[in-house]
Amino acid sequence: MNKTTIQSSPYGPVVIVWNGRNSGTKVIRVLLSTPADSALETVSRLYPAASESSCLEMDAVAVTIQRFLEGEPVSISPDVADLSRCGAFQQRVLRAEHAIPRGCVSTYKLIAEHLDVPRGARAVGNALANNPFPLIVPCHRAIRSDCSLGGFQGGAAMKRSLLSKEGIIFDENGRVQCSHLHYG
User: Fold this and answer.
1) How would you list the strands of the sheet with 24-32, edge to edge?
2) Which of 49, 84, 93, 183 is deepest in the core (most CB within 10 A)?
3) Number of other residues whose CB lies within 10 A of the CB of residue 109
């Protein structure tokens, strides 16, 4: 039976969907609120039988997510997430994305090249667009090759805000200004 832990944030509620099984307690999904849809509505639609619950591991994840969203320099280990729910390629993308340090960005193209998948930028973008663990795997750190933001499950404003909190600077057109791209 899936359980949920709800955490408030500056961007609205964040819902952590998790379960405890033989392999331990693992996050199976992180749902972000957007201006158009609250994570609370999304969880009731996608996981109607899930019950709100608490445990030490998920409480710690929820507090770390809140601190992350407030701009504190914290990181969450991908080991708390059940990556086995993702295909092999998506797992590789998520691990590469998780390795991008706070305050740095990379492009979908550079991540694809790092994974030895030339011309795989779109596949990397799709893997990140379907990232079930946003914030645990900070996919807001991937941008387009022209340094524009690209997509994010929490919306463009949240992506820009998170990057700004990490020290990323934008030009007057909203493009990331940086002298170095991770994996570049």
Assistant:
1) 24-32, 14-21, 3-7, 51-52
2) 93
3) 21
Indicate whether 67 and 132 sit together in one domain: no
Q: Of the listed 86, 104, 139, 178, which one is catalytic?
A: 139
Cα distances (angstroms) measured from residue 63 to each of 18, 103, 174 = 15, 21, 30
**Same domain as 99, residue 164:** yes
Same domain, 55 and 107: no
Tokens of 4: 């949920």
Mean pLDDT of the chain: 95
Among the candidates 18, 52, 80, a domain finishes at 80
pTM: 0.95
pLDDT digits (tens, 9 = 90+) for 74-133: 999 999 999 999 999 999 999 999 999 999 999 999 999 999 999 999 999 999 999 999
Asked, for residue 182, whether it belongs to a domain, the answer is no
Active site residue 104: no
Kindly state the average pLDDT of the residues 22-41: 92
